[in-house]
Write a structure and sequence with these properties.
The complex is a heterodimer of chains A (445) and B (170). In chain A, 28% of the residues lie in helices and 21% in strands. In chain A, a hairpin with a 5-residue loop joins strand 6 and strand 7. In chain A, helix 4 crosses helix 8. Chain A starts with a helix and ends in a 49-residue tail after the last strand. The relative contact order of chain A is 0.15. The C terminus of chain A is likely disordered. By secondary structure, chain B is mostly helical. Chain B has a single domain, classed as Arp2/3 complex 21 kDa subunit ARPC3 (Orthogonal Bundle), CATH 1.10.1760. In chain B, helix 1 packs antiparallel against helix 3, helix 3 packs parallel to helix 5 and helix 6 crosses helix 7. Classes of the chains: A alpha+beta (445), B mainly alpha (170). At the A-B interface, helix 2 and helix 3 of A face helix 1, helix 4, helix 5 and helix 6 of B.
Chain lengths: 445, 170
């Protein structure tokens, strides 16, 4: 026996080393079903590497900042002018979208739907990758000490990135959506077909589990469906680039991720989600039509019906102060139904201080409350976030019937299959405290 | 492109200083995690370092242990269970050092072919373990595998030339 071992010493050691690793692997695989604790050895390895990565990233960013902030300012004026024009256009669009979103919210609140919102996010910087071509994951510079936890969604302003796979005190490992082992519940925006998003060996992303008899066209937007309980519903995932027959009876739909996964620098970790009743922003809002109504001489004054309604028993007349104007905090649905309010028509002198231009009215007036396709997650913890605070995306989950009334589909509800099945309930006496002015025909939207 | 058989007496065995033995694999791991994914994700620097050390030392035990250490370290930084890369690189380390003990792998052509072959062996072992043992749903792309193998082999030639400077004769 000894001579055999001596003769095949190298081979014996090889088998021994392989056996030990296989044993270790088996232990891990066995434990992966349980509540997985991060192993100490992983923490050591990560803690050894990440300080250097942080240092390099810091040096790189400092150099870039110095260059871009002080030396390379060519074309800034032109860009500034262009951006201002863009802002003006977006303000106009904002007014229109907020109208649609508000309408959707009213319907949701009337139907007592719950919506899932992003309550808190943590901005983080990408400091490295897993160091392997066969897996697609990144390290971020925020860990458990910053509130990052397992299975939290990681997103950018563009779209979803992945989920937190491992958490260390000051770093976290994020499994990206183009990893072969990842799976994200996704759906097509127009057809609302749901599938599972997976990565491929080439690093591409495909949408699976969509039946081959369905019609899917390239260019269609893919959103998160919320079915994985990680990503809130309605976040942008990507765009369909190619549709081909897949395995069995399913299509293989290639998706170009909305977020540029190979050039990630900053990401947001959604550390807190909450379910709440959708807020219908009742009254006090200045609509584009209202602003136009002040400017067009042909539009009749505020109808006397409003005053008559205000005088009706049970209705509480709110003094037309400036507090009722733009920016008033919306009432909760229950509150609004318990204490009905009738607000004056915006064309009354109290609201006449609203800037006459619809574009100028937008910033102080309608606050963008949601917009699935324009998800811009709010930053609940740090002002360093690249995204604005006020525009936390609200994604709807739960009842499938909600699809038709989802705020994420603002402006395109009519195109949703099933949208016509949702019949708006009869208006309660106070369901429409923001009276539609008779000038709706003149409404440019 | 001769790959010649060399008798035991003709084999030149090299050794490396401790800083190089530890520092080069660590640097390779670090660069692998830090370099931008878009450009460098196709390369596997730890694999190239494993092959180089194994071929230079020509000692199967040393080769397999080097491969195991580098592979396990790479596993620790990745998202998958620890040991998949470890097993793959152990096999590569053993194979490369065994080959280095029998063949002259000093010239460029031989190095290119050996690196390409071991890249494919590495991928084969990796996928076998990942799919067979860990039950991961990984798929293999031949086109990407061949391209990555050629790219690594090309990079390996330059890298080996650089690392040759650190060789010390026994």
């Amino acid at each position: 026996m000894e001579s055999v071992l001596g003769r095949y010493r190298n081979l014996t050691i090889l088998v021994g080393v392989l056996f030990l690793q296989v044993l270790g692997l088996a232990v891990q695989v066995k434990r992966s079903g349980e509540a997985e604790n991060t192993r100490l050895i992983r923490i050591w390895a990560v803690d050894t590497v990440t300080p250097f990565e942080r240092l390099l990233v810091w040096a790189q960013n400092s150099g870039n900042n110095l260059w871009h902030s002080y030396f390379y300012l060519r074309g800034v004026r032109a860009e500034n002018r262009q951006l201002k024009e863009q802002i003006e256009q977006m303000r106009l669009e904002q007014v229109r979208l907020s109208e649609d979103a508000e309408q959707a919210h009213r319907l949701q609140s009337l139907l007592a739907f719950k919506e899932q919102t992003i309550a808190k996010t943590v901005p983080a910087q990408v400091i490295g990758s897993s160091g392997s071509d066969l897996s697609r994951s990144i390290y971020i510079d925020k860990g458990s000490s910053a509130g990052v936890g397992l299975d939290m969604a990681v997103i950018t302003a563009g779209g979803i990135v992945g989920k937190v796979l491992r958490v260390y005190p000051s770093t976290a490992l994020v499994l990206m959506i183009n990893d072969q082992t990842s799976g994200v519940g996704a759906m097509l925006e127009k057809s609302r077909l749901q599938g599972v998003l997976r990565g491929t060996a080439n690093g591409a992303v495909i949408l699976e589990r969509v039946m081959s008899d369905e019609q899917v066209t390239p260019g269609e937007t893919v959103l998160s469906s919320g079915g994985d309980q990680i990503f809130p519903k309605g976040l942008p995932v990507g765009t369909v680039t190619k549709v081909s027959p897949g395995r069995e009876m399913f299509l293989s739909i290639e998706v170009k991720p909305a977020a540029d996964l190979s050039r990630l620098e900053e990401v947001l970790v959604i550390t807190q989600k909450q379910e709440q009743n959708p807020v219908a922003e009742t009254g006090g809002r200045v609509r584009a039509a209202d602003v136009l109504a002040q400017r067009l001489p042909s539009v009749p004054d505020k109808p006397a019906v409003d005053l008559a309604a205000a005088a009706a028993p049970g209705n509480k007349v709110v003094a037309p102060t400036s507090a009722t104007g733009a920016g008033t905090k919306p009432l909760a649905p229950a509150q609004s139904s318990a204490k009905p309010e009738v607000r004056p028509h915006p064309a009354t002198p109290a609201v006449a201080t609203v800037p006459p231009s619809p574009a100028a009215a937008a910033p102080g007036g309608p606050k963008v409350s949601t917009g699935g396709a324009q998800v811009a997650p709010g930053n609940g913890q740090s002002a360093a976030s690249p995204l604005p605070n006020k525009t936390a995306p609200k994604a709807v989950s739960g009842d499938p019937a909600l699809k038709s009334a989802s705020p994420n589909r603002a402006g395109s509800n009519a195109a949703v299959p099933g949208a016509k099945t949702v019949t708006p309930p009869p208006k309660p006496a106070v369901a429409q405290p923001n009276p539609q002015p008779p000038a709706t025909e003149n409404d440019p939207h | 492109m001769p790959i010649t058989y060399t008798s035991g007496e003709q084999i030149e065995v090299y050794r490396f200083s401790i800083p190089v033995t530890i520092g080069v694999p660590l640097l390779a791991l670090f660069l692998q995690t830090f370099l931008p994914r878009r450009i460098f994700s196709i390369f596997d620097l730890p694999l190239l370092v494993t092959i180089f050390f194994a071929m230079a030392r020509r000692n199967p035990i040393s080769g397999l242990l080097t491969g195991a250490a580098i592979g396990l370290a790479q596993d620790m930084l990745g998202p998958y269970p620890i040991g998949i890369y470890g097993i793959a690189k152990t096999v590569v380390g053993y194979g490369a050092s065994s080959l280095g003990a029998k063949l002259d792998v000093e010239n460029v052509g031989a190095r290119f072919l050996v690196t390409l072959a071991f890249y494919l062996v590495h991928a084969a072992v990796y996928f076998t373990v990942a799919r067979g043992m860990v039950n991961m749903t990984l798929s293999w792309s031949w086109s990407r595998g061949i391209v990555a193998g050629l790219a690594n082999a090309a990079l390996g030639i330059g890298l080996y030339f650089l690392l040759d400077k650190f060789k010390q004769r026994t």
